[in-house]
Amino acid sequence: MSIKDGEDHGHHGHHGKNKMFRRVFIFVAGFILLVVFAILIIWLVLRPAKPKFYLQDAAVTTFNISGGAAAMLTVTLQITLSTRNPNDRVGVYYDKLDAFAAYRSQQITFPTAIPPTYQGHHDVVVWSPFLYGMNVPIAPYVSTSLGQDKSSGLLLLNVKVNGRLRWKVGSWTSGGYHIFVVCPAVLTFNGGHSPTIRFQQISTCSVDV
């Protein structure tokens, strides 16, 4: 065998390996694209609807405003919050949820963590967390408005939930999505110093995902 024949043989062997690698790469890339396309089609067909949230009850056991130049609020609020998954084939993982109360756009309680939860198709989940605010600094106009509302006997609060969720379709789970929930709560003050919920009826919440 001549030197040239050896070189030609090596060249053909190297070319054959490159051709095989290209075929494997094309096959793997095509398979991945097919899987991604199938997931996209399933996602577009199922397209999950946002979960429904409802504020079922709220009770305030502590409500004190300290006057002075630096007004502070101490409040204890227990809520009953429910959520329903309206989807037929899509589950929901609530990875992180924090609930808090707000008055006139100012947060008046510290965030309370709600335990991570999985919600199946058409499932209903109920939580009853306590929301606490201890010596929370409030703006002067908020202090004045709270005092006026307390004197009138009516108080409008917003219970808010901020967190992250994931969708589950079969064995596939999506990436994380931000969820933000706002639930209005109208409270009435009784004859004493503590307010109670005005209506024992479900309040529908707005949900943004």
Automatic annotation (TrEMBL):
InterPro entries: LEA_2, NDR1-like. The chain crosses the membrane at residues 24-46, 58-79. The keyword NADP does not apply. GO terms for biological process: defense response to other organism. GO terms for cellular component: plasma membrane; plasmodesma. It is a single-pass membrane protein. This is Late embryogenesis abundant protein LEA-2 subgroup domain-containing protein. It comes from Spirodela intermedia.
